[in-house]
Write a structure and sequence with these properties.
With 688 residues, the chain is an alpha/beta fold. It has 17 helices and 32 strands.
Length: 688
């Protein structure tokens, strides 16, 4: 197990079997190009076709496949009945063979899967096996014995799902190609869960069944659409499948960040946009921050030509691959391997969205996406270092676990990247507040978003010298607000446009409520300085001093407005609404200093400290060692161009630039191809 400390404030174990020797695996989800979901059936299995599939995928850089032993084909059982319809037992479908072994699987299907795994191993491919594949592409694929049952809440269904997982792992655990198990394919789509407790029981049953047979491999989720609000009231929607329970019970989380996925989509611009690049990364960092487990995009894609042309999908894939790698995610898997345009059965013959999603055509011809994946793999393999060192973080952003906080964290991620800084995220209820010099507290939607314990812990850090950037909108509230910020407030429900000048820029937003803020009379709270007012004279931005630290306040739900688009042209459109300046300014006031700074918000930078460091390490070394240490770069810097065209970016570098991979640097400017990334060395004054 490797340890990554770049995405969270606690150690996160990343299984070697998933990340591989480069700490980042690339691949896709696989169904046979010829038979699709039916590939495991005796009358559909075509070993030569499958071998040709794997050859084509391997030739284009695929090193990991997520695969699906369809539940109905591996456990094809039907009930048989006696007098008055009393159930007596089970028979194999299509036969009268009575089955009494609770861990029985269809032997032919198992043999075919074992042959497939051997083919993958021979081509250097590792497999993530999605166990309870009862849902696929808009259709249920379940055995007849459970048809009509509530698949997530009924005890009989849960028993058979657990038996299937245990039986399959027992039958295949000796296969070297298998890197990890996941519970199933988007199993929450198999029905509506009755409660959070039922969800916990379902996950626990399947995960425990796997570990009974194979305690050596990691168990992943295989699920999308999880929520942060496990501690929210019962009536809050989408709380039953929570990140907290997945972190408690599993080893790896696996979001499926498609561009139109709820609750806040990334499809407010092209798939190869800034927002499109950051969407999978932000979702994974959020899931890791709350669950305490690593996360990676297990299913990601453009959703086909209805969303964008293939060349745009390839450009979007290229930048998502680079962004996932530079932010320390362990893998990236595209949906899917092959177009499914030749499959003549439901759901593929009646669902337009599911047909044209491959990196290869149904005839195995490479699409632009396959070429993009192959090129990234070649770039990664060509680098003279592996793995990429963890990225540095400049501050901590808190995640509310009392409401669904994805919009706020998506917004915070994009604002920080546009501003040229890096944040790490932490679940405010699940983990203690870590030490930092800079904190971000995004606005929630009510008075329960943050516990008083969290708020007071933040204020204690400010009194000790830290800087806090707090946004507040939509009628949200915090106890002791005036004493901490020196601002009095009056709120009423009326949507309002907001426009104000800040640091020479004209900024604008909208909020769902009107909150009038004014400095309290002298002695009524902390000393408050108004830095900007809106057109109506209301406080828009302020600064207050508390103890030895500072609180910067923004009087609207900044992060959510950016994510949901009510603040236009910030990370979309023409980028002229430079609200990200608020993040850049607060970080600068907090003392954040980067080795590399930029002015263009569409350049995504991460710094990865490496080498021996600066003067203290050199002073302690012998003369011969000191010379060697001085030759080590202070950091590797990864730069992603989210513009579609090749661009030259002006950089301010605190030191000198050494080697550059996949780009060029000259006279203070970095040149990168459109929707592509590069890596370069920075030598600071102490190690030049």
């Amino acid at each position: 197990m490797k340890i990554s400390r770049d995405n969270a404030v606690y150690p996160v174990s990343i299984p070697d079997s998933i990340a591989g020797p480069h700490d980042f695996a690339v691949g896709c989800n696989y169904w046979g190009s010829k038979a699709g979901v039916r590939m495991w059936r005796a009358d559909e299995w075509d070993a030569a076709s499958v071998a040709a599939d794997l050859d084509a995928l391997a030739a284009h850089g695929v090193e990991m496949l997520r695969v699906f032993p369809t539940w109905c084909d591996f456990q094809p059982l039907s009930r048989y009945f006696g007098y008055a319809g009393i159930p007596l037992g089970f028979v194999q479908d299509g036969t009268d063979r009575r089955i009494v072994d609770p861990l029985w699987l269809e032997p032919g299907a198992v043999a075919r899967f074992r042959d497939f795994a051997a083919m993958a191993e021979a081509r250097g491919m590792r497999l993530m096996v999605s166990l309870v594949t009862g849902w696929m592409s808009g259709r249920l694929f379940v055995p007849r014995m459970v048809e009509g049952l509530d698949l997530l809440n009924n005890p009989a269904a849960l028993m058979w799902e657990g038996r299937f997982a245990r039986a399959f792992v027992r039958a295949t655990r000796d296969l070297p190609a298998i890197a990890a198990w996941d519970l199933g394919n988007e199993f929450n789509c198999m029905g509506k869960i009755a409660s959070a407790e039922h969800a916990w029981l379902w996950i626990h049953t399947i995960a425990s069944a796997v570990r009974l047979e194979d305690p050596t491999r990691p168990v992943a989720s295989g699920m999308q659409d999880l929520t942060t609000n496990a501690f929210g009231p019962q009536y809050e929607k989408r709380r039953d499948w929570s990140l907290q329970m997945h972190g408690e019970l599993l080893d790896v989380l696996t979001p499926h960040p498609y561009p139109v996925s709820a609750p806040v989509p990334a499809s407010r611009g092209p798939f190869n946009s800034f927002r499109g690049a950051m969407h999978p990364v932000a979702m994974c960092l959020l899931q890791e921050a709350v669950s305490g487990k690593p996360a990676f995009p297990q299913e990601v894609g453009s959703l086909g030509p209805r969303t964008c042309p293939e060349r745009v999908a390839a450009a979007g894939m290229r930048q998502q691959l680079f962004a996932s790698w530079q932010h320390g995610l362990p893998a990236y898997l595209w949906w899917c391997a092959f177009d499914q345009t030749e499959l003549r059965y439901p759901p593929f013959d009646d669902n337009a969205m599911e047909r044209e999603l491959g990196i290869l055509g149904a005839d195995r011809a490479p699409k632009p996406q396959a070429l993009a994946l192959k090129a990234f793999r070649a770039f990664r393999d060509s680098l003279p270092f592996a793995p990429l060192p963890p990225r540095r973080a400049d501050g901590v952003c808190l995640v509310s676990e009392r409401e669904d906080f994805w919009p706020q964290i998506f917004g915070a991620s994009m604002l920080a990247k546009a501003a040229g800084i890096d944040l790490r995220f932490i679940g405010a209820d699940s983990y203690p507040l870590p030490d930092a010099e800079f904190y971000v507290l995004p606005s929630g939607t009510g008075v329960r978003t943050w516990s008083q314990e969290t708020w007071e812990a933040l204020l204690d850090r400010v009194r000790a010298g830290a800087t806090l950037l707090a946004t507040l909108g939509e009628g949200a509230g915090l106890s002791g607000w005036t004493a901490a910020t020196g601002l009095e407030r009056t709120t009423w429900k009326e949507a309002r446009p907001i426009g104000f000048a800040f640091e020479g820029a004209r900024l604008s937003a909208r909020d769902t409520s009107t909150t009038v803020m004014e400095p309290a009379p002298e002695g009524g709270g902390a000393a408050c300085e108004v830095l900007a007012r809106d057109e109506n004279g209301n406080v828009a931005v302020s600064r207050s001093r508390l103890g030895r630290g500072k609180i910067f306040f923004v009087n609207f739900a900044l992060e959510k407005a950016v994510a949901e688009g009510s603040a236009a042209n910030v990370v979309d459109g023409d980028f002229t609404n430079e609200l990200w300046h608020l993040y850049a300014w607060a970080a600068r006031e907090a003392g954040v200093r980067r080795l590399v700074s930029k002015s263009d918000p569409r350049l995504v930078l991460t710094e990865h400290p490496g080498g021996a460091g600066c003067q203290p390490a050199i002073a302690a070394a012998s003369p011969s060692q000191a010379g060697s240490l001085r030759s080590q770069p202070a950091a590797l810097v990864c730069a992603l161009n989210t513009r579609p065209e090749e661009t030259t970016f002006a950089l301010d570098v605190a030191g000198s630039v050494g080697r550059v991979w996949n780009g060029s640097f000259e006279n203070g400017s970095l040149r990168i191809r459109g929707n592509d990334g590069c890596v370069f060395e920075v030598f600071s004054d102490c190690n030049r």
